[in-house]
Sequence to fold (112 residues):
Amino acid sequence: MGVGTNLKRLRNKTKLSQQEIADMLGIDRNTYTNWESESTDIKSQYIPKLADIFNVKIQDLFDDEKKFQINNFENKDNATTGQQGIVINITDSETAKVLGSQLEELIKALKK
Fold:
């Protein structure tokens, strides 16, 4: 998750529009929209102002709040086996331990 996703999440949490934030920063709405979509980088002079608007620390604008992500996949390259599965991306070691334990318990329960 990038800074644009964090900006959008924080903006939605505060119920501010892109135009309202752009006005607070004295910039064009398209400039702010490009930051959320990560089409352009945020100029460093606006980072402290964004943190103030959202009432967060500067680091919170860049932190990846998402600890893990689960995606389904199907192997379309090998149509004869029809392989399917799940990919789990974990970015936090404590979350990995908890999820691993929970998966072990689930597998044991399924074997019964």
